[in-house]
DNA sequence: AGATCAACGTAACATGCTGTAACAAAGCGC
DNA sequence: GCGCTTTGTTACAGCATGTTACGTTGATCT
């Protein structure tokens, strides 16, 4: 392979040039971009091997940009977030980013991550089919990311609806962290159309209730999917994660 | 890992420079900070591996600062308190500090604690996933921190509301120490939103009454949850604590 | 002792949040 | 089109929590 070409997308000029220079000094061809339009321009005009994308691009939501890029072209994307709180939360969003890195980052770690993602991208036949495949184990239960199935402690398979599965995945990605209804709704909508910004009645409550009825031994006294009164919901259960392929 | 970078937060210039110099002589990069703003500045501008935070920062409450920092970024925090009474009290506050150290401290002990916390932080994937899990035993009763349940001496499970449980935990963390209503209220709010600074009627009294009615054999003549007339309430009962994983 | 007053206990009420059944709308396969 | 599933909406009931009001207790002074 020739010299890897990398696109640095950030609206802060300082960070942008800092990152660009850093990668150039480390043997990459690094191109700066400040807006989504510029990104599209670069993608059309030449080969790009990887995109470093800031989560907060001005008032634009990086998550949505990522989803759009993914729909359009098959480029590995690494998210860069200012807050590690975002960072954790990102894991729940099914936007298909290949990795997440929180600022401030250790330069060596950043390089390692970038190389790892590019390695992986090279090995994998078609990026478009790639997603984060992860298997979660929690209190006897298993969510098998490969088959997108949920198995009860007794081994039987439980059938969850799409929405219920999505909710479960958001929760599994954020164990012990209280999530507000808005945050959950945002995470769920990213997979879909992504254009329902505000409040939507009690949809989340009902969804939570339905999921409880399927995965809680005693739905009236939930042990895992607890409610955080005045806040939202928490997944109060330790979760083991296995990344696959 | 490179040289560890440490932030010393204290509003007393003397202690601040004393600590800073001490750590610098022991191979750390130690940065002084006097206010929360300065802390945020340092966090934004560069890597910080650990924060040493004074409990009393002027009139600001260190506990709340800690909670805010935790929400924002994932840095290990060690509390430093002037009074060991505070020290004990801290244990009840669920702020997620990684350790507590009382002044005056043994320099070697301090170093050891700092190194231990940094070790732990390195091993642990994400600090935010960590919580203090503790089980308390008091006069036949058991509070099981893992399941967040309370069991009566006869083995039956007692159902406490969230608020009642929170109150119980504050009391258990401070046995034999009279707590004022303000202190209790502060401790209870830290877990929540953290933005109800002042007096709130008789809420604490009523809450105490409700807890008594559930855990006292004879609520009219409380043996554990005693009132300290003119002060507040005391948990007059020996408590055994077990920390878990 | 008795009077007095502040602190405390608690029942009753007010409010807000949550769980959920029932219904409606939308999507899907046949 | 028809039946089935999924998902969102609404309405109502129940619970958790804070507030108020009033009776009781306990300390202090005379």
Question: What does this molecule look like?
Answer:
The structure is a homodimer of 245-residue chains. The first copy, chain A, contains eight helices and 15 strands. Chain A has 245 residues and is an alpha/beta fold. In chain A, the strands form four sheets. A five-stranded parallel sheet of chain A has the order 2-1-3-6-7, with helices on both faces. Chain A has a five-stranded antiparallel sheet with strand order 11-10-9-8-15, covered by helices on one side. A three-stranded antiparallel sheet of chain A has the order 12-14-13. Chain A has two domains: 5-129, 3-Layer(aba) Sandwich (Rossmann fold), CATH 3.40.50; 134-243, Winged helix-like DNA-binding domain superfamily/Winged helix DNA-binding domain (Arc Repressor Mutant, subunit A, Orthogonal Bundle), CATH 1.10.10. Residues 84-94, 123-131 and 191-199 of chain A have low confidence and may be disordered. Chain A is elongated. Chains A and B meet through helix 4 of A and helix 2 of B. The structure holds a DNA duplex (30 and 30 nucleotides).
């Amino acid at each position: 392979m020739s010299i890897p070409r990398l696109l640095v997308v950030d609206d802060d000029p300082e960070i942008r040039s800092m990152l660009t220079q850093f990668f150039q000094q480390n043997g990459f061809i690094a191109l700066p971009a400040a807006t989504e339009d510029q990104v599209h321009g670069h993608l059309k005009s030449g080969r790009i091997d990887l995109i470093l994308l800031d989560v907060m691009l001005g008032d634009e939501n990086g998550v949505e940009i990522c989803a759009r890029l993914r729909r359009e072209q098959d480029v590995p994307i690494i998210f860069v977030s200012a807050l590690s709180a975002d960072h954790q939360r990102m894991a729940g969003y099914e936007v298909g980013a290949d990795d997440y890195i929180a600022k401030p980052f250790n330069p060596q770690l950043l390089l390692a991550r970038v190389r790892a993602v590019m390695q992986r991208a090279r090995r994998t036949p078609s990026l478009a089919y790639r997603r984060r495949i992860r298997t979660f184990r929690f209190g006897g239960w298993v969510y098998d990311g490969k088959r997108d199935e949920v198995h009860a402690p007794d081994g039987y398979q439980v059938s969850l609806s799409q929405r219920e599965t999505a909710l479960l995945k958001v929760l599994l990605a954020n164990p012990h962290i209280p999530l507000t209804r808005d945050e959950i709704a945002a995470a769920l909508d990213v997979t879909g159309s992504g254009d329902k910004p505000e409040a939507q009645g009690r949809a989340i409550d009902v969804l939570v209730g339905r999921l409880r009825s399927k995965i809680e031994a005693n739905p009236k006294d939930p042990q895992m999917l607890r409610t955080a009164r005045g806040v939202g919901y928490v997944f109060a259960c330790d979760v083991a994660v296995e990344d696959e392929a």
